Amino acid sequence: MPPPLDVDLRIDPTWIVPVKPEGLILDGHAVVVEAGRILDILPEAEADARYRARTHRRLSDHVLIPGLINLHTHAAMTLLRGYADDLPLMTWLQEHIWPAERRWVSREFVLDGTRLACLEMLKGGITCFNDMYFFPEAAVQAAIEAGQRVAAGIIVIDFPSNYAADPDGYLDKGLAMRDAMRHHPLVSVCMAPHAPYSTSDRSLEKVLVYAKQLDLPIHIHVHETHEEIRQSIEQYGVRPLERLRHLGLLGPDFIAVHAVHLLDGEVDLLAGHGCHVAHCPTSNLKLASGIAPKAGLLAKGVNVGVGTDGPASNNRLDCWQEMRLAALLAKAMSGRPEIVPAQHALRMATLSGARALGLEERIGSIEVGKQADLVAVDLSGPHTQPCFDPISQLVHSAGREDVTQVWVAGREVVRDRCCLTLDEAEILASARLWRQRLAG
């Protein structure tokens, strides 16, 4: 028998839920990691014979899952959390959020706000987030500091901001960020036009050209409110999704954020073009925007991941809340309790998000050869006992407070519920200073 192979990391949880195949639960197995990738998944006794780990984590009463993926957020808006609540979307945006952003948003604002977001997300098991906001290079810097994976949005919008004066300026700056970060292992990029109501045909056509040239996903808010649809019909003669179809944006790289108000034919349109949906149930409920037709999307085979939206409209960066709520709303709206079982809800928060971002071959499930983005969840608490089904407990009983360890590309970034990569006290002090500025 050959001597044991030296490896970087071995993790022995009570259960492993690899997500692929859906519903599988492994007992008494170990995950072996080398050079940031999953080298092996095998019974513990076999791991004893084959490997000698430099770091060995034994986690009793824990379940190991892939890192959660937040498919849509505006991370830096942590600094506007609770700034304006209980308002309709356009009132919230036009009278409160956009004026505050015009006054305060800067590179410093985005860096500090995204650091706070990364701290919150990592401690809650979110190892990758798809961001849409100004100064994306600052958000990328914060994510890299945190050791967290980010899909950075090249935001495009037709009004000026502190970041850029016009759509061409947004594109130029975003593309420069993409060029600077294109080889970083934790950074990917999306085209991120804000919404059909805030982006002209000319701007959307340019977005499409760059998306095709650079093989980038397109990430856009669409069909979030009835008012958005009414305005589109008044201005363009068609509903927003039909306008986007006519412009050529729909396809396997298209991520429709929210997609709350869909006719049956529009569900067919998304399915037929292989589009993805970023489902943000908490934000949609808080803004009274509505409830996305998850059951209908599922029936047509549309890939749906979960997002938190920004922390100014949610107000949590908590994918546990989103996957649970997505499952419950689908059951209630369809009248079918079997819709979105726990294993599918977990997939929405992991592999479905990876697929939408074009990262399915790298992250989203625990498979040999994939990046070791892993989360250990403690199921020993009173709210998760007795444990008949670990996947059910993950979705319907556990929460982000039960996350104890997090690895991104094999690097431990959270240990015993403490973030190892970010200075929590310093970040919280910075958040208090921003509150004083904004409140003053």
In terms of topology, how is this protein built?
Elements (H helix, E strand, L loop, with lengths): L4 E12 L9 E2 L1 E6 L2 E7 H7 E16 L1 E6 L15 H16 L2 H17 L2 E6 L4 H11 L2 E8 L10 H15 L5 E7 L7 H14 L3 E5 L3 H11 L3 H8 L6 E5 L5 H9 L3 E4 L1 H6 L7 H6 L3 E4 L12 H16 L7 H7 L2 H6 L17 E5 L11 H7 L6 E6 L2 E5 L2 E2 L4 H16 L1
Parallel strand pairs: 1-5, 6-7, 7-8, 8-9, 10-11, 11-12, 12-13
Antiparallel strand pairs: 1-2, 1-3, 3-4, 5-14, 14-15, 15-16, 16-17
Verbal overview:
There is one protein chain. With 440 residues, the chain is of the alpha/beta class. It contains 16 helices and 17 strands. The protein has helices at residues 44-50, 89-104, 107-123, 136-146, 167-181, 201-214, 226-236, 240-247, 264-272, 281-286, 294-299, 319-334, 342-348, 351-356, 390-396, 424-439, and strands at residues 5-16, 26-27, 29-34, 37-43, 51-66, 68-73, 126-131, 149-156, 187-193, 218-222, 254-258, 276-279, 303-306, 374-378, 403-408, 411-415, 418-419. The strands form three sheets. Strands 1, 2, 3, 4, 5, 14, 15, 16 and 17 form a nine-stranded mixed sheet that branches. The chain has a four-stranded parallel sheet with strand order 6-7-8-9. Strand 3 and strand 4 (37-43) form a beta hairpin. The longest helix has 17 residues, at 107-123. It is globular. The model has no long low-confidence stretch (mean pLDDT 97).
